[in-house]
Design goal:
The complex is a heterodimer of chains A (257) and B (465).
Chain A: E1 30-34, H1 40-52, E2 56-60, E3 77-80, E4 93-99, E5 113-118, E6 134-137, E7 150-156, E8 170-175, E9 191-194, E10 205-208, H2 212-224, E11 235-239, H3 251-256
Parallel strand pairs in A: 1-2, 2-3, 3-4, 4-5, 5-6, 6-7, 7-8, 8-9
Antiparallel strand pairs in A: 9-11, 10-11
Chain B: H1 28-33, H2 41-53, E1 58-61, E2 74-76, E3 97-99, E4 110-112, E5 116-118, H3 128-140, E6 145-146, H4 154-159, E7 163-167, H5 176-181, E8 184-188, E9 200-201, H6 208-214, E10 222-223, H7 234-247, E11 254-259, H8 263-273, E12 277-281, E13 287-291, H9 292-297, H10 302-315, E14 323-327, H11 333-342, E15 346-349, H12 351-357, H13 365-370, H14 395-398, H15 403-427, E16 441-443, H16 446-452
Parallel strand pairs in B: 5-15, 6-7, 7-8, 8-11, 11-12, 12-14, 14-15
Antiparallel strand pairs in B: 1-13, 2-16, 3-4, 9-10
Helix pairs in contact in B: 3-15, 7-8, 8-10, 11-15, 12-15
Classes of the chains: A alpha/beta (257), B alpha/beta (465).
The structure holds flavin mononucleotide and iron/sulfur cluster.
């Protein structure tokens, strides 16, 4: 499967160090929060305080630490200047978050609203169980991307790994490159859009031709992210609905699960 | 030609009297009663059911396994000469129960007036009226209740003074606002009735309201995922717990609920992963629906799980930090007191609370009959046709449950259960129900002694391996 080079996302240029945390910054200003080896509780508390002051926050020295920027409210505007570990932006409640390098497992898991952008790659289960908002990964995303998704959009400019979309309920997973095996396995609802190759469709999935209106809606979203391209040939994966009911007696499907 | 059926009445060896025409001579009884120990009527019916359905059978309630050791094999040995009893009808016995009191990690531990609370039972499995009644009933007596798999109902939150929010692998309606309004968060890893599998709610119960809350198509047979979407092993769980603590700002405790399978190891791993409370559910645990084979043949019984779990906490040096809640087949104060004595810090009840509300009560008898059952033996929760309005999403059936009356019954049952526990504790000379200990018990069978390490009755010695 072709990987995707997220361009200069991996190259971090040092930001201008505008007012440091705790210097009385206010609305419209930018504050810096350093992570390093400090307790995450302290780091997140500093982030929340800066957000409450109405500042934009640049988070530095991230060291791929876990649980950065969890459960942030609407209006929060954060940039992580390095890579982040598990659950960055988890339970996001309206914040705009950018990760300038890579993200670990469970990026934006259970997010209800807001926008999370990763300039590099994302690990397993990006957007797991998310309810709404937009998750945008410029590189590849790992296995189980959008697992149990309940709403919102996940856009992956690169490829997604094994079992992406597993048991998703609603929302869209839009993949500009390839989807690995078991794509859209056991979907309840929701849609998985793939512009490249599909390794293999998952159990009880169906590949359908999207209609023009649906394609326009996806391309509009992509254009707004600067990656629109109307020449793409989309395949849309939806639920085969054979596993929805115990009584469907489709032995082949049943034995595969 | 011998057909083994035709009895020759003239044969001098024939038992003529009592023989049954069409049955082999002398074998009337075994054929007539069908008492093959292998092909029991149940085994025959099971094959026939599967031959028609093309799948395993699903049902509610709890296990029908007949070979389980039970807490009935233990008795209390109250204070006599070696210790002093408390006045059972006069003196105080503390029943207050604190869960999740980990300094620095939990700002608001759970504080209850009783060691017994209501288990996680989802809205979807239960009607909204039943959920509200459980909340009101528990609140009236200083107990608590839990949401269950399908998300938090507004009625339930309002009704419950103390409410645990359950986070299952399916993450239906997992919402930051609900997490923050909960008094504790329970990470569901499994349940006793069907360990190793996810939730199951048949289409009859997936009404529009239930479907909307779970983001599911209406009337699907919902079989939920068993693995959490974003963590796999204990190391990940540790990170997940930190995420949840961050989301609720370290205000409330984090529970992990699991079916009892390998408690000695599972409990130690969960404790090390950082949970504050472990809820261990034995194979007798109730359910709204489960594959019958899982109910009867998976997990271990509650009596066998408790000591192993307690020892696991002690072995890893976390007995003071992590609390143990036990569930699965607890029918009242006697079972609860035995569980406390074996090492539980609190006890959780599901089925007993439903029965207190009116499950299996002799009302609307014709509706039980229409399902082929009767009050006292109903286990048809999976059908959604609950005659008493507890396990249904049918508005007409649901309306049969009077919320206030059901809440009062739950409150009284919890009161009675708490009284039973404290009566036993006082007889054993304890001024707190939490001082009950294995020494207060004796085993009536070798099996119970072997499972629990409790001394054998009379001889006062442990089972010697
Ligand atoms: C109707 C019903 C619904 C249940 N729903 C859930 C659930 O949503 N999540 C869960 O972890 N356990 C669920 N359980 C299991 C209970 O939380 C609990 O473990 C069990 O009922 C304890 O056993 P008992 O019924 O013998 O007291 C349910 C049980 C019942 C009876
Ligand atoms: S009465 Fe209702 S709750 Fe009780 S066993 Fe029957 S269906 Fe289940």
């Amino acid at each position: 499967m072709a990987g995707h080079d997220p361009g200069d996302g991996g190259d971090v240029t040092a930001p201008a160090h505008s007012p440091a945390a705790g210097t009385g910054a206010g609305a419209g200003t930018e504050e810096i929060v350093e992570v390093g080896h400090r307790p995450i509780r302290e780091v997140n508390a500093d982030i929340r305080k800066a957000v409450a002051r109405g500042s934009r926050v640049r988070v530095q020295d991230t060291l791929s630490r876990h649980n950065l920027g969890v459960a942030l409210p609407e209006g929060a505007d954060l940039v992580f200047e390095g890579s982040v570990g598990y659950y960055c932006g988890g339970l996001n409640n309206g914040a705009t978050i950018r990760v300038e390098r890579n993200a670990g497992w469970g990026l934006g898991e259970a997010m209800a609203s807001g926008v999370i952008t990763v300039d590099g790659y994302a690990g397993m289960a990006a957007g797991a169980s998310m309810l709404g908002g937009l998750l945008h990964v410029r590189g590849d995303a790992g296995p189980r991307t959008g697992v149990a998704q309940k709403g919102g959009d996940i856009v992956v400019e690169g490829s997604v790994g094994f079992l992406s979309g597993f048991m998703a309920h609603a929302g869209r997973i839009i993949v500009l490159a390839d989807a690995a095996d078991a794509a859209g396995d056991s979907l309840w609802g929701g849609e998985m859009w793939v512009a490249g190759n599909i390794g293999s469709p998952g159990v009880d999935s169906r590949i359908v031709e999207p209609d023009a209106e649906e394609v326009a809606s996806v391309e509009d979203l992509l254009s707004s992210l600067g990656v629109g391209d109307v020449s793409r040939r989309w395949k849309k994966i939806v639920s085969g609905q054979k596993l929805w009911h115990f009584e469907s007696r489709d032995a082949q499907a049943w034995l595969m699960i | 030609m011998a057909d083994d059926l035709t009895l020759d009445h003239d044969d001098p060896a024939a038992f003529v009297a009592g023989s049954v025409p069409g049955r082999p001579a002398g074998a009337a009884a075994s054929y007539e009663s069908g008492d093959s120990p292998r092909w029991t009527p149940h085994a025959i019916a099971d094959v026939q059911a599967k031959a028609q359905l093309g799948r395993y059978q699903v049902r509610g309630f709890s296990t029908f396994q007949r070979n389980l050791p039970t807490l009935d094999d233990l008795v209390f040995v109250p204070a006599t000469m070696t210790r002093l009893p408390l006045e059972g009808y006069r003196e105080d016995c503390d029943t207050r129960t604190v869960l999740g009191d980990r300094p620095g990690l939990v700002e608001n531990p759970i504080e209850l007036d009783t060691p017994v609370y209501i288990a996680s039972m989802s809205f979807g499995a239960l009607s909204a009226t039943a959920k509200a009644a459980l909340g009101h009933g528990a609140s009236r007596v200083g107990s608590m209740t839990c949401t269950g798999e399908g998300g938090m109902l507004e009625d339930e939150r309002e009704a419950s003074d103390v409410l645990v929010y359950q986070m299952t692998p399916s993450r239906y309606m997992l919402d930051l606002d609900h997490l923050r309004r909960a008094d504790a968060i329970e990470i569901a890893v499994g349940q006793g009735a069907k360990p190793g599998t996810g939730g199951l709610l048949l289409g009859m119960k997936v009404s529009q309201r239930v479907a909307d809350m779970r983001t599911l198509p209406v009337e699907v047979d919902q079989r939920s995922t068993v693995r959490h979407p974003d963590f796999l092993g204990a190391d990940d769980l540790r990170v997940k717990i930190e995420e949840l603590r961050e989301a609720v700002d370290y205000r409330v405790p984090i529970f992990a609920k699991m079916g009892a399978t390998r408690p000695r190891y599972d409990v130690a791993i969960a404790a090390k992963a950082g949970v504050d409370v472990i809820v261990l559910d034995g194979m007798e645990g109730g359910t709204n629906a489960a594959p019958e084979l899982l109910l009867d043949h998976t997990g271990i019984p509650t009596i066998a799980a408790i000591r192993a779990a307690r020892e696991a906490l002690e072995d890893c040096g976390m007995a003071d930090e992590v609390k143990l809640v036990v569930a699965g087949g607890i029918r009242g104060g006697v079972d609860a007191a035995k569980a406390l004595a074996l090492g539980a810090d609190a006890v959780m009840i599901g089925t007993a609370a439903l029965i207190a509300m009116g499950c299996n009560s002799p009302c609307f008898v014709e509706d039980y009959e229409a399902m082929g059952t009767a009050p006292g033996r109903c286990h048809h929760c999976h059908t959604g046709l609950c005659p008493v309005g507890i396990q249904t999403q049918d508005p007409e059936l649901e309306a049969r449950l009077d919320v206030d009356a059901a809440a009062e019954r739950v409150a009284r049952f919890l009161t009675a259960t708490t009284m039973e526990i404290s009566l036993l504790a006082k007889a054993c000379g304890k001024s707190s129900v939490h001082n009950l200990e294995p020494e207060d018990l004796r085993a009536l069978t070798l099996e119970a002694a072997a499972f629990t390490g409790v001394d054998l009755a009379g001889i006062d010695r442990p089972f010697d391996w």
